[in-house]
């Protein structure tokens, strides 16, 4: 044990030696391969997706290794033993004469060595042999590689994986991980493919893209406990549809991009429009996760009970880890009761006025209470009721123009900065009451044209338009690429952030839209570019926006995650000590550095995010 601790201590200062494999194999295709449709919802990946819902209580498909019959002490033992094994492997590697520990030039820890192209060929052959009973599990089909190498949601050039692996069970993942480790091959978990900061792109040396879309089953529904056990490839929208079809009045409230899956959502630490009322992935919506660690060990982070104070929260270790610490193969999620909702829209003279109105609405208790309780003691409102809202969304004038043109709702809206509210309450009367209170507040801040959706359908369509903001925004400038990104600040700082950013965008002449979950201080910008010059401007605007957010005590990303796009801001935001702690955890759990390399942890290199001057519009994914 003491040698393990020494090993960990060394690993926190050192890392394994770099071998510049880029020169050995080049699979990064900066542009030309990215012109077609992507893997998000099309092609072979989508064709392989299945939806097999088992009845409530059906345990089929649950990994035997992840059985709930293991005590938390066993879990801790597993974590510890896997850490010991991982740590010792890392120590051995780091100490090996062939390894070397630090960069001779800079003294900084260097990235780990990957296998050679020949090693990767052996790995693929071994994978094929191991899964010879089901040839569909291992694919090197060029179209499959292309689909998995690019994303419409990532403005950066893509990289091809060497092979795509489609597991059907936790055991499949374990076998794959053992082969990857043997041949030092990068492993890139891939699920709904809707992430926006380059999280799923392969490494420049290639690697095994692990497409979890085949593991998409709901395994158990516990209506009485308001929870559900599922595989990581299950999509949040499908889960909610299934619950509705089965007449179960519960839903999963985290709502990121359409098509996102539970595994990807956990791994990005996502949230969405519902966060005002329900919080984010970092709240307690994920009760436990079964994870295959880089050592090949399978752990389950916790049992299904609603609460646990048994040690620190190992589930959270994987929330936002972006696939760098393990592959999630099963998850228990919490569900919330479905309540009646409706949608209202109101226009403002500018985003500053709109965000000031949001602050007052929030301070009335919006998003906290479900029904009409007594007024908040600190409330200055004369109204006797607090105002329950599920979502408060800011959209700018350009977004409204885009929605009028491309949205699914038929109503045409004034082209002005606007707020979308989703109210939630136990009855239609309570929704009307809420609307009355909000109307009064927003009008005080210069809001005009406050309107409630006229029907459930109109409310659903309007909300769909808001959820599809990405696509409507993209349609504003034909042939353009979109750079979508998010930041988050304390709500009181939001007016300043949004106002300054919008001014910056207007001065630059870049076509852009702003949408935001302003109820929790989170806003998103979608900036369009058609050439290198515009792309350079876009990068500069985003850079200024991120620095502005951090200076306002905020974060470089409220919900999209770090990927490759935001890793350079982490030290500024979190401090070197916190980032080093994250790296120490990574080195301990994944000493070979094989899991989703190049993502999340700042490494002083920007090799996956090459910056300006390297691209032409229309040539990338
Ligand atoms: C139109 C649109 C709107 C969006 N709106 C929002 C929003 O409102 N809020 C928000 O938070 N995000 C939003 N997003 C971003 C995106 O939907 C989220 O980041 C989502 O959580 C990604 O889930 P996914 O299944 O697509 O994951 P992927 O993109 O497949 O993967 C994301 C990350 O998780 C890792 N990963 C995937 N599966 C596993 C697994 N089983 N085990 C371990 N690691 C894994 C991957 O390696 C990668 O690092 C939006 C995207 C789009 C396109």
UniProtKB/TrEMBL annotation:
Family note: Belongs to the FAD-binding oxidoreductase/transferase type 4 family.
FAD-binding PCMH-type domain: residues covered: 157-338
Gene Ontology annotations of biological process type: lactate catabolic process
Organism whose genome encodes this protein: Lyophyllum shimeji
Gene, per the UniProt record: DLD1
GO molecular function: D-lactate dehydrogenase (cytochrome) activity; D-lactate dehydrogenase (NAD+) activity; FAD binding
Name of the protein described by the UniProt record: D-lactate dehydrogenase (cytochrome)
One GO cellular component term noted in the UniProt record for this chain: mitochondrion
Sequence segments annotated as region (Disordered): 599-621
UniProt keywords, alphabetically: FAD, Flavoprotein, Mitochondrion, Oxidoreductase, Transit peptide
Pfam families: FAD-oxidase_C, FAD_binding_4
Composition bias, Polar residues: 611-621
Enzyme class: oxidoreductase
UniProt EC number: 1.1.2.4
Cofactor: FAD
Domain of life: Eukaryota
């Amino acid at each position: 044990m003491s040698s393990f601790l020494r090993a960990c201590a060394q690993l926190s200062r050192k890392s394994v030696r770099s071998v510049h494999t880029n020169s050995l194999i080049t699979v990064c295709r900066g542009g030309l391969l990215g012109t077609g449709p992507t893997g998000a919802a099309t092609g072979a990946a989508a064709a392989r997706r299945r939806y097999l819902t088992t009845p409530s209580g059906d345990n089929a498909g649950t990994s035997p290794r992840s059985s709930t019959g293991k005590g938390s002490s066993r879990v801790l033992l597993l974590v510890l033993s896997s850490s010991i094994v991982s740590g010792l492997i890392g120590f051995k590697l780091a100490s090996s004469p062939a390894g070397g520990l630090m960069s001779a030039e800079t003294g900084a820890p260097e990235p780990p060595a990957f296998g050679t192209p020949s090693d990767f060929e052996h790995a693929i052959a071994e994978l094929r042999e191991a899964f010879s009973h089901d040839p569909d599990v291992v694919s090197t089909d060029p179209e499959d590689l292309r689909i998995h190498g690019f994303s419409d949601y990532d403005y950066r050039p893509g990289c091809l994986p060497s092979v795509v692996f489609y597991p059907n069970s936790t055991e499949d993942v374990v076998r794959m991980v053992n082969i990857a480790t043997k041949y030092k091959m990068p492993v890139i978990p891939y699920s709904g493919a809707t992430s926006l900061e380059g999280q799923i792109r392969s490494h420049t040396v290639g690697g095994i893209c692990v497409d979890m879309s085949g593991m998409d089953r709901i395994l158990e529904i516990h209506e009485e406990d308001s929870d559900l056990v599922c595989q990581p490839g299950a999509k949040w929208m499908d889960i909610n549809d299934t619950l509705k079809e089965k007449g179960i009045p519960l839903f999963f409230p985290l709502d990121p991009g359409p098509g996102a899956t539970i595994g990807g959502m956990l791994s990005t630490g996502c949230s969405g429009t519902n966060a005002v009322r329900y919080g984010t992935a970092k709240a307690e919506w994920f009760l436990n996760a079964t994870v295959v660690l880089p050592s090949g060990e399978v752990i389950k982070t916790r049992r299904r009970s609603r609460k646990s104070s048994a040690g620190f929260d190992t589930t959270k270790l994987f929330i936002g880890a972006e696939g760098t610490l393990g592959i999630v193969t099963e998850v228990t999620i919490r569900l919330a009761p479905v309540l009646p909702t409706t949608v209202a829209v109101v226009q403002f003279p500018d985003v500053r006025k709109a965000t000031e109105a949001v602050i007052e609405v929030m301070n009335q208790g919006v998003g906290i209470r479900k029904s009409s309780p007594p007024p908040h003691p600190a409330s200055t409102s004369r109204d006797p009721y607090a105002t329950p809202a599920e979502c408060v969304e800011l959209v700018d004038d350009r977004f409204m123009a885009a929605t009028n043109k491309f949205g699914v709702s038929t109503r045409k809206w004034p082209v002005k900065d606007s707020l979308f509210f989703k109210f939630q309450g136990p009855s239609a009367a309570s929704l009307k009451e809420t609307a009355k209170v909000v109307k009064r507040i927003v009008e005080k801040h210069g809001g005009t044209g406050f309107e409630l959706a006229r029907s459930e359908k109109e409310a659903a369509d309007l909300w769909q338009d808001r959820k599809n903001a990405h696509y409507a925004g993209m349609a504003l400038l034909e042939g353009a690429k979109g750079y979508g990104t998010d930041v988050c600040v304390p709500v009181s700082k939001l007016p300043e952030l949004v106002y300054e950013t919008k001014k910056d965008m207007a001065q630059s002449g870049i076509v852009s839209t702003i949408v935001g979950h302003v109820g929790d201080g989170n806003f998103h910008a979608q900036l369009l570019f058609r050439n290198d010059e515009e792309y350079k401007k876009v990068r500069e605007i985003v850079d200024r926006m991120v620095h502005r957010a951090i200076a306002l005590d905020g974060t470089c990303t409220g919900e999209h995650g770090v990927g490759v796009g935001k890793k350079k801001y982490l030290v500024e935001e979190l401090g070197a000590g916190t980032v080093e702690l994250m790296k120490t955890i990574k080195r301990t759990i994944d000493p070979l550095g094989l899991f989703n390399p190049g993502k999340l942890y700042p490494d002083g290199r920007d090799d996956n995010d090459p910056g300006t001057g390297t691209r032409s519009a229309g040539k990338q994914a």
